[in-house]
Write a structure and sequence with these properties.
- The chain has about 300 residues and is an alpha/beta fold.
- It contains 13 helices and ten strands.
- Strands 3-4-5-6-7-8-9-10 form an eight-stranded parallel beta barrel, surrounded by four helices. Strands 1-2 form a two-stranded antiparallel ribbon.
- It is about 45% helix and about 15% strand.
- It has a single domain (about 5-310), classed as Alpha-Beta Barrel (TIM Barrel), CATH 3.20.20.100.
- The longest helix is centred in the C-terminal third of the chain and has 17 residues, at about 240-255.
- Helix 4 crosses helix 5 (about 155-165).
């Protein structure tokens, strides 16, 4: 599996694994099997967050890492500073909150450091200086090897790194995939969907990208199979006619190539021209194996254009 260099010795695997399903005792055994297979196939970057499962995801990930003895080989990506879900517009980006969330995650996971710590949300009303100083302090203290952000506009990342005088923010975690959506559609106005101007910047800057929801949370497969869609999938993706056109083209390309739709949507993110690691979550080892078919091929520029435009 290819590596995407982040900096300070940190890298992302060609496909990253979202551990958001952890933290529920009924799901941990199944998730452990998925992580075992991911590791066996060469995957090393595991994503977790304080907000997932009220912190239980951190604990479960730590339990898996300790039970397998793989801390030295695993790339742990922690996320903190998510607002209280009941007060999403009240940011938690003070130095104290940033430091506390990471420290709490480290204790829950059972490790002395995170490989990459990411701020889960932004507050555009807040000047970047205090945020940057806090992030720089995390790296200096050794609590994390590198820092990044999630749901930040490219302009804010540029502003932050200019203040830092270096590329302090080395990675961003953003919503990106073949299926289109909008911020209002997600029901969370602090959720930032990657747009065309920012995509151009990622391609030119070369900053590492972890793209979450690369498979549209299963929308393509469920819609293709005629399965019932829940409210969030309808809201996120189904209302956009362009997504239905993209689904038709995806089915066509899958039929022509023999590659599964899940493998193609994973490869689409990886082969998009950005230094992107699709951040995938799976409910079974079968889903993981299907998606990992992307490791066996690369999409051509012509195939990507066809998926996007039909031309």
């Amino acid at each position: 599996m290819k590596k995407i260099e982040v900096g300070n010795g940190v890298y992302l695997s060609e496909i990253s694994l979202g551990a958001g399903g952890l933290g529920n005792p009924d799901a941990d055994e199944r998730c452990f099997k998925i992580m075992d297979l991911y590791f066996e196939l060469g995957g090393r970057s595991f994503d977790t967050a304080r907000i997932y499962g009220g912190g239980r995801c951190d604990v479960s990930l730590g339990n898996w890492i300790k039970s397998r003895g793989v801390r030295a080989d695993a790339i742990i990506v922690t996320k903190g500073s998510h607002p209280d879900p009941n007060s999403m517009f009240v940011s938690r980006l003070s130095r104290e909150e940033i430091e506390s969330d990471l420290e709490t995650s480290l204790k829950a996971i059972g490790t002395d450091y995170s490989d990459l710590h990411i701020l889960h949300r932004d507050d555009v009303k807040k000047p970047v200086e205090e945020i940057v100083d806090a992030l720089a302090g995390l790296v200096k203290s050794g609590k994390t090897r590198a820092v990044g952000v999630s749901n930040w506009a490219a302009s804010r990342i540029i502003e932050a790194n200019r203040y830092a005088g270096c590329e302090l923010i080395k990675c961003a975690q953003m919503h990106f995939g073949l299926a289109l959506t909008t911020t209002p559609s997600t029901g969370d106005l602090t959720h930032v969907v990657l747009n065309e101007p920012d995509i151009s910047w990622y391609k030119e800057s070369g900053i590492a990208l972890m793209a979450f929801s690369p498979q549209a949370r299963g929308w393509f497969v469920k819609r293709a199979e005629g399965r019932e869609l829940n409210g969030s999938l309808l809201r996120y993706y189904d209302y956009l006619p362009e997504n239905h056109r993209r689904l038709a083209r995806l089915k066509n390309l899958s039929s022509e190539t023999g590659y599964s739709m899940s493998a193609i949507t994973t490869a689409y993110v990886r082969d998009s021209g950005m230094r992107a690691s699709p951040l995938c979550a799976y409910s079974s080892t079968e889903q993981l194996r299907d998606s990992f078919g992307a490791l066996n091929f690369s999409l051509t520029a012509e195939q990507i254009k066809f998926l996007e435009t039909g031309e």
